[in-house]
Amino acid sequence: MASTFAHRPVLLEETLEQLALRPGAVIVDGTVGGGGHSAAILEATGPNGQLVGLDVDDDALSAARERLAGFHDRVQLIHSSFRRLSDVLKELGLSHVDGILLDLGVSSWQLDASSRGFRFSGEDSDTTPLDMRMDRSRGESAADLLARGTTDELAGWFREFGQLPGSGRLARTIVETRRERPFRTSRDLLDAIARARVGGGRKHHPATLVYQALRIVVNDEMNALEEGLEAAIEALRPGGRLVVLAYHSIEDRIVKNRLRDAVRGCTCPPGLPACVCGGRIRLRLITRKPVSAGQEERNANPRARSVRLRAAERIAVAA
User: Fold this and answer.
1) CA 20 to 30 Å from 272, out of 117, 170, 193, 313?
2) 278 burial class (0-12, 13-18, 19+ CB within 10 angstroms)?
3) What CATH number is given to the structural domain containing 302?
C-alpha cells in the first residue's frame, strides 16, 4: 500500500522558501501524507534537522515511513491529527519548534482509491463504499451520516460546506430514499443527487460539492483546522514560521481570519474604550496575499489548481 500512495507535493519550492529552513531546525509537518514535502524539508535542514510528521491516515503514514526511511532517527512519525499538536509535542518533550506546515485537504491517492470512498466517478461506483474517513479506526462514515442526519442537518451541511444550490431538495430526497433502502455505495448517493436535480449548470459535477460537504463533516475538518491553527501558533518559537496550503474557500477563509486575528491581537469591536478580549499580537504576515501555483504546475498537477499558500512568522509576545 505504501508504495502506491502517490504524493506530488504542491508549491514545494514556495513552501520551503516560506518556512525559512536552516540546518538543525525542528519542523512539524502536520499533514505528512506521502512524505513529499517532508523529504524536501529534511534535506534542507540537514545534517541534523528534525521532523515530526503527523497524519490520521494509516496509509499515508506507511507511505511516509517508506519514503523517509533514509533519514533514520531524524524523523518521528505519529498517528495523530494536527489538532492535537500541543499534546504530541508535550509527549515528545518539545516546548517549541522552528516551523510548521499544514497541507490541507485530500491527496490525489485518497481521491483515486475507490476503497476510501472519497470518489464518485468511475465504473466501480456500485462497489465504492460511502466511507470518507481519514482515520478509519474511529468516527462515523458518510453512510452513517446519511442514515441518521435530519433533513435540516443534511441541508445545512450541503449548504455550509458544499455551497450547493438545492441543498434542501437533496436533503429531502435522501431522507425519502432511506426509508426504502440505506445508502451504502457511491451509486446510491449519485442516484439521489440525480433525482434531486441539484447543482445544474455548474462547471463541475454536482456530486463534487456533495462529497466535499460530507467529507468535511465526517472528518470534522473545520473544527480541527481552528484548533490546529491555534496549537500551531502557540507551538512556534519567536521567528518560527507557519505555512498553510488550503484548497477551497471555506478553509482558506478560516486560515486568513485566524492569521489576521493573531497579527492584530485585539479582536474587540470598534468603539470600545478599552480592550476586553485580552488578545495579543503573536504573528506577522509573510504573505500579504496568498500564493498560487503557476500555470506549469497547474497543468502538471490538477490538485495545484485551487491551492492558496499563506505564511506567517511568530513574534515574541510582550510580557
Assistant:
1) 313
2) exposed
3) 3.40.50.150
Model pLDDT for residues 97-133, shown as the tens digit of each residue: 999 999 997 876 676 677 787 777 667 788 899 999 9
User: What is the domain count for the chain?
Assistant: 2
- Choose one of 193, 218, 243: the last residue of a domain: 218
- As a whole number of angstroms, the distance between CA 55 and CA 2 comes to 14
Q: Provide the 10 A C-beta neighbour count for residue 250.
A: 18
The CATH number of the domain where 167 resides is what? 1.10.150.170
Which among 25, 24, 21, 38 is positioned nearest to 76, based on CA atoms?
Answer: 38
Last residue of a domain, one of 171, 196, 218: 218
Q: Find the mean pLDDT for residues 235-247.
A: 98
AA letter at 298: R
pTM summary value: 0.92
Q: What is the dihedral of CA 246, 248, 251, 253, to 10 degrees?
A: 100
CA 275 to CA 254: how far, in whole Å? Answer: 23
Distance CA 188, CA 182 (A): 8
Is residue 150 left, alpha or beta, with left meaning phi > 0 and alpha meaning psi from -120 to 50? beta
Per-residue pLDDT tens digits for 175-202 = 999 999 999 999 999 999 999 999 776 6
